[in-house]
Design brief:
mainly beta, nine-stranded mixed β-sheet, 2 helices, 9 strands, globular
Length: 115
């Protein structure tokens, strides 16, 4: 499992959560992997960031909790399925499994704000 450094931010007014891998640039496409959750990929179809609209509703947590800087995002993908999870303070607040209809290659990494 590869470990990446995560830069995350939460906009309470717009209720939007964004997590980006530090040092990764470029945007090619974004894929809706679940209601309100978008995975942004680069030209090689490798995930570089995550955007969550209506984050407090999607994650079913308070806006105050989403301001916590201790965030981890896990992405595990093979040719069939994509697994996505979000942890705040080591508490799993989101877990999504969906078909990999996006052409994302085999990846397995954790983006950690405490790297």
């Amino acid at each position: 499992m590869e470990k990446e450094t995560l830069i995350s931010s939460y906009d309470e007014i717009n209720d939007t959560f964004v997590g980006k891998i530090e040092g990764r640039n470029g945007y090619c496409a974004d894929y809706g992997i679940s209601e309100g959750i978008y995975l942004i990929v680069d030209k090689d179809n490798i995930p570089t960031s995550v955007l969550v609209d209506r984050a407090s509703e999607v994650f079913d947590v308070s806006k105050k909790f989403l301001e916590n800087p201790n965030v981890k995002i896990g992405i595990d993908c093979d040719s069939i399925c994509l697994y996505f999870s979000v942890f705040i303070e080591d508490l799993k607040i989101c877990s999504v499994k969906c078909r990999n209809n996006f052409g994302i290659p085999n990846v397995n990494f954790v983006m950690d704000s405490n790297s």
